[in-house]
Amino acid sequence: MKKLSGIIFSNIYDGALGDLTAKRTVASLPFGGRYRQIDFVLSSMVNSNITSVGVITKYNYESLMDHLGSCEEWDLNRKNGGLYIIPPFAFGRSDVYHGKLEALHTALNFLKSQNTEYIVLSDTITICNIDYRDVLSNHIASGKDVTAIASKPRSGADNYPAVFEVDRNKSAKSITVNCPAGKNSYVGFGMFVMEREALIKVVEECVSAGFYHFEKDFLQKYFNEGKITVNVYNFEGTVLRNRDIATYLKNNLKLTDEKVHSGLFKPAAPIYTKVRDEIPTYYGDTSSVNECIVADGCVIRGELENSVLFRDVKVEESAKVIGSVIMQGTKIGKGAYIENAIIDKNVTITEGARLIGAKHSPVIVKKGETI
User: Fold this and answer.
1) Mean pLDDT over the full length of the chain
2) Per-domain residue ranges for the chain?
3) How large is the average pLDDT for residues 271-287?
4) How far apart are CA 132 and CA 115, in angstroms?
5) Which residue, of 49, 154, 179, 207, is most buried by count of CB atoms within 10 Å of its CB?
6) Which fold has domain 282-365?
C-alpha cells in the first residue's frame, strides 16, 4: 500500500493578501520570478513520491487551472493517481466552505478513494522545500495521532495560526492559535500528517457539529479535551511565510540572498513550474542590475536594484526600480521611478511616473492598469 496522498488548500488566507488575490488564489500567486506559490508544496510532494494530490479550490481558480494544466511538469498526468482539482460544490454543498474542515468535507470522495494510509495537508502561504517522507517516518515513530510541521519563530511580534509548546520528545504540551510565539515555542506551517481514515472520521464528526476551523475547532479543541496527541516535526531548513502583502514583498526580495535561494532551490529536489519557452533577457548598454532576480524574456535598459522581475518585463532607459516585484508583461517607461512596489501582470508605467511605497506598506498596481 502506498504511504502518502496529499491535499493542498488553494484559497486559504486569500483575504490577507488584498488586491494580489482579488482575482486569483493564494496558490496561483506569482513568486520568485517564474514560480507560483503552489509550485513549492506541489514539488515537495512529488519529490517525496506522492503521486496522488487533491487541490481544494473555492473561487478565482481559473489562473490556477491554467498554470497547472495537464500537470505534465510535475509528472502527475498519469492514469493511476495524479492531480485532482476539487471545486467547492464537489460533495453536494450549496455554499462555499468557511474553513479547512469544511473544505475537507468537499474532498471526502477524494479522501475515501485513496489507497494510502496517511494524508499530508498543506497551505500554500508557506514557502519551503521539504521531504515529506522524513515527516512521515517521524510521525510513525512518534506514535501520535497528528504531526504538525513547524519551526522556531523568526519574530515574536507576529500572530501565527498555530503555536506549539513541546517537551523534550517534541510532543505538544499546549496549542494556541492566532497568537504570537515565545522564543521556545514552535510555529506551525499549516502542514499536517495523519492517518487517512482518522481524518475522514474527524471531518465528518466536526462538520456535522458545525465546526469548520482545522487548527481551532479540531487540533486545539480535541487536544485540550485529551482526544488526540500531537507530535511536532521541527523543520530546520529555509522557510518563508507570505502572511500578508508586506511579507510577500520581503520574501520575494530575500531570494536575492544566496543562502535563502540555495535553501529553497536544491538540485536533488527541484521546484517544478509551468514551462514557457522564452528568449534570453536582453541587457542594453544603459542597463545597471544589482542583486536582482530577472526571468527570461525581459528587456532591461534602465536600472534595477534588489528587485524581482518576472518574464517579459521591459524597463526603458533612465527608469529605476528599487526593492520591488514586477510581474509578467509589465512595461516601465523612460525616466520612471519605482520603489517598494508590487506591480501586477501586464501593467504599463508611463514615462516619468513615480511610485514610492514603504517596505511595510508597498504600493500595489493592479493587473492591466496604466499609471
Assistant:
1) 93
2) 4-264, 282-365
3) 93
4) 18
5) 207
6) UDP N-Acetylglucosamine Acyltransferase; domain 1 (2.160.10)
